[in-house]
Design goal:
CATH class: Alpha Beta
Helix content: 25-40%
Strand order of the largest sheet: 7-6-5-4-3-2-1-8-9
Shape: globular
CATH architecture: Alpha-Beta Barrel
CATH superfamily: Metal-dependent hydrolases
Number of helices: 6
Order of helices and strands: EHEHEEHEEHEEHEH
Length: 229
């Protein structure tokens, strides 16, 4: 990240109860964000955006930057749509979804790459995205985060961080430092800076007991496998 503007910390990957695998209310997310070392957050529910739009004014009322988003289920894996007003349709190719996100003024970021049990896009199938999540607070061993960072560095993609919070208590454990050009940035200013690649990941891992609890809950909903990598 370069330049001399102000830096804000944004948790770019937060789920609410609108996601099938989360029980966090909007109110609890906002309360947790106020206490966390962040300036704002992006609600990225699975293939839904209604809760994100409800969260934005509540975040702003609490003195935070609220940004709407979606975690889109593409045909090639999950993709974060940050700063969009409309929900991108699920099930389409990664390339088509990225184009849709950009057309809506958003930023397309690949979350938890390499983690196939979490529907991560494998880098061999990566299109020209706007960034890669290289710090996900729910990476148990940190292996996949390190792989993601090496990939993003080698491919020269902007690097993002997020909590991937499915409980309010995890909000703010992962975040993205964004360098903006104005003193009191709006959500639009932050999204523009993200699109320009002025980002740097930060955060600390989720405690192992919370991580394993989240995996167990997700596996129950999916009826799928549990991986700790």
């Amino acid at each position: 990240m370069s330049g001399s503007g102000q830096k804000v910390a944004i948790d770019c990957h937060v789920h609410t109860a609108a996601s099938y695998d989360s029980q966090a209310t909007i109110e609890s997310v906002v309360r947790a964000a106020v206490k966390a070392p962040i300036d704002g957050f992006v609600v990225t529910d699975h293939d839904r955006i209604s809760a994100a739009h409800r969260a934005v004014p509540r975040a702003e009322a609490a003195g935070l930057i609220g940004i709407p988003g979606v975690e889109v289920s593409t045909a090639d894996g999950h993709l974060l749509a940050i700063g969009v007003e409309r929900r991108p349709a699920p099930g389409r190719s990664l390339a088509a979804t990225i184009e849709n996100i950009r057309d809506d003024g958003g930023v397309a970021v690949i979350p938890h790459p390499f983690q196939r049990t979490r529907h991560g896009v494998h880098p061999t199938g990566t299109e020209d995205c706007d960034g890669v999540e290289v710090f996900n607070a729910h990476s148990f061993t940190g292996l996949r985060n390190r792989q993601a960072k090496r990939f993003a560095t080698t491919s020269e993609y902007p690097q993002f961080g997020g909590s991937d919070a499915h409980r309010a208590s995890v909000v703010g454990r992962g975040f993205t430092h964004v360098e903006v050009d104005v003193r009191d940035p709006t959500a639009r200013d932050v999204v523009a800076a993200m699109r320009a690649g002025r980002t740097r990941p930060g955060g600390r891992p989720t405690p192992s007991w919370r991580y394993l609890g989240k995996l167990a809950e997700s596996a129950r909903f999916r009826g799928g496998d549990i991986s700790t990598r």
